[in-house]
Every structure is written in C-alpha cells, then in structure tokens.
Amino acid sequence: MRLNESVIQSHRDLLYCTLQEQSDDSSGEEAAGDTNMDFLRNLFSSTLGIGSPDKVLDELTLEGVARYIKSGKCKNILCMVGAGISTSAGIPDFRSPGIGLYANLQKYNLPYPEAIFQIDYFKKHPEPFFALAKELYPGQFKPTVCHYFMRLLKDKGLLRRCYSQNIDTLERVAGLEGDDLIEAHGTFYTSHCVSFCCRKEYSLDWMKDKLFSDDIPRCDKCNSLVKPDIVFFGESLPVRFFTSMKMDFPRCDLLIIMGTSLQVQPFAGLVGRYESFLLLLITDSVDPLLGLLGFGGGMDFDSDKAYRDVAHISTCDDGCLALADLLGWKAELEELVKREHAKIDSQDKSSESKGAAAKASSASVAPEPRKEE
Ligand SMILES: [Zn+2]
Question: Enzyme group, top EC level (predicted)?
C-alpha cells in the first residue's frame, strides 16, 4: 500500500512538472496548451487515480469539509478570494461597472467607467483614479469575519496561501503578510513612479500624504506620475502570482473560494487546471454558480460524477462562521474579530484627535474620508 502510494506520488509529481512546463506561458493566451493539458490531465487522472481516495469527501457538504479538515489529512489550504469578502466591510465591488463608486465619479466625465483603471487613460487623466483612491484609502475599513477566518487558518498552520483579487489590503490588516498572501491585482501598500526609466518606489505613508492633501502624486526625481502598485487594465499581473501558483496548486489539499464569481482571469483558469484537491465555494450569489456549471468553469457540484466540489450558499462571513462552528473554532474566531476590531478602533481614535486640524483644511473631492495622520 505504502509503496503503491509513493509510486503514485512520484507519477503525480512528474505529471505536474509536465503540466507546469506546458503552462509556463500561462500569463496570457493559453488556448493552444489547454487542449493538450486537458488530455494529459484526464489520462493521468484516470490511470493514476488523481483525486485520490484520501481526498474524497464522505459527503459533499460543509460538514464533510469540516470532517476532512479535522481528520488531519488536510494540511495545505489555499484561499482564493474576491470583492465579495469585503462588501460586508463596506467596500463596494467597484470593479463592476454601473454601481456605487463609478456613479460618484460622473463629474470627471469618464468616457466609460473602466477607464478609471485603464493605464493609458490614467497617464493622461489621473484625477478620477486618485479621487477614488482617496475614498478607498486603506485604513478606513475593518477586515471581516471572513478575513479573520483566514487568519485563524494561518495561526493553526493550515493556510498555505491566500490569493486575493482585492486591492483593499484588508488581508494584511487581518494579519496575513509576506508569504501568506498573493495580491494578484496588486496592492496600495507600495507605489512606483510610472516612468520606465525611473520606477522610484514610494511608501504608503508618502502616498497617503499626497492623497489627503489632494495633490496629484508626482515623482520627486522625474516629475512623472506615481501610481499605487495595483494592477490596471493593460498591465500584467505580478510575477509572484504565477510562480507561487505553480508551487501551490499541485500541493493543495483544499481550495476555499470566497467572494468571487471567478469570471476574472487568470483566477478562473486555475480551478479547472488542477484536480488533486477538494474545493469549497462559499457564495451568496447563485448566478455565477450557474455560469460556472454552464460554461465549464471546472467545478462540478451536483452531477452524478461530482466528487470533490462543495458549494455553500451563504454570505462569506456566515459561511466562515458556520465552518468555524463545525470545526469547534467559533468562539475563538469571534474573540479574534472582537479583539482586532477593538485594536483598530483605538488606533483610529488616537489618529483622529491628531488629525483634526488637518481635516478642517481638506478640500473634499470624495465624500468625507476619515483623516489619519
Ligand atoms: Zn520618477
């Protein structure tokens, strides 16, 4: 039995090497490689039993997932998260056209809403983006139950990594940092001069000063614009996203997807590419689910062949609380949220009193942001 397992493991490793080599150009067009890869994957998974018995749930429910985590066989959990995990913190899903923040930006006469994140438009008209950046400035929102659930996974040594589509930095505020986190769409945490010849780096504090004094941030070396390191349309994703993905997905035991409809590439492509892990989708929106079922998103929740994918229909916070409850962690999670939120509140209070003077002189572009200094 043991020997057999190790043979299978080495075949799996070989397979993954092959797949990874094939997907080396995964940053963009991958159509050509996909057919070959699917063929190889199916061949190996049927002959070698990938999706091995120790990774098949006794029941495709949240309870089944909880039992699997508690069994000790689940050592590497990946989380893949999107805007839906931050909406309960008050951050709208502002990448979706036609809602909330875009409407507030009408005064800038954007040719179309997405222009605000278009790199070429930004270089000519940076004002709308910086107005939005001020409004969404990190530090004005508190992480959610869902963010702290991931922190708990980390504290318990179960979180291999969190892949986030969000740029609100709430994962960092919740205590995920460095290796814990891949910010696939970049981060506000650092900024760079947009000039290719210069690329001088600027800190969060520097950017904050500029935003809240309503200055357009310009490089003090070359006077080009300085942009937070979030990924605009027309820019490539961070290299770390691709290198980590190749290491993480083959070794993943459980992938938890929360708050994303997986319609944004390359996230969407990841789920179908690897099959050796279990998948839990927590969503309160059934539409994307139907989309995934209908358009081959790589998940299978309810067909006769379903064996690994679990969908839990609820808000991300409720889903995490329910899972924490089943794991016996509910009190711990609630305590963590309470303690961390109290810490943020006390920091806000002390910075509000210091920032009161500055607040009075701020010309408001966006609806009254909380001042911090
Ligand atoms: Zn510069």
Answer: transferase
- Determine contact, residues 256/280, Cβ cutoff 8 Å: yes
Cis upstream peptide for 126 (omega within 30°): no
What residue spans define the domains of the chain?
55-90+143-185+240-345, 92-140+186-230
**pTM for the full model?**
0.75
**Considering just the CA atoms, what is the radius of gyration of the chain in Å?**
22
The alpha carbon of 222 and the centre of ligand 1 are apart by a number of angstroms equal to 4
- Distance (Å) from CA 236 to ligand 1 centroid: 20
Read off the pLDDT of each residue in 96-119 and give the average, rounded to a whole number. 73
Question: Per residue in 26-58, pLDDT tens?
Answer: 433 444 444 455 545 544 454 444 444 455 677
Tens digits of residue pLDDT in 172-216: 999 998 899 999 888 888 899 999 999 999 998 899 999 999 889
The verdict on whether residue 41 carries a ligand-binding annotation is no
Say whether 222 counts as a known binding-site residue: yes
Task: For residues 1-15, give the mean pLDDT.
Answer: 38
Give the H/E segment covering residue 159: strand 159-164
Q: What is the 3-state secondary structure (H, E, C) of 84-120?
A: HHCHHHCCCCCCCCCCHHHHHCHHHCCCCHHHHHEHH
Cβ–Cβ < 8 Å for 132, 94: yes
Whether residue 312 lies in the annotated active site: no
Q: Which CATH architecture has domain 55-90+143-185+240-345?
A: 3-Layer(aba) Sandwich (3.40)
Write the CA distances from 141 to 55, 119, 231, 275, 365, integer angstroms: 37, 26, 21, 36, 19
> Which of 185, 192, 312, 341 is the catalytic position?
185
Express as a percent the part of the chain with pLDDT over 90. Answer: 37
The CATH code of domain 92-140+186-230 reads: 3.30.1600.10
Q: Collapsing DSSP states into helix, strand and coil, what is residue 353? A: helix
Band the pLDDT of 20: cuts 50, 70, 90. Answer: very low
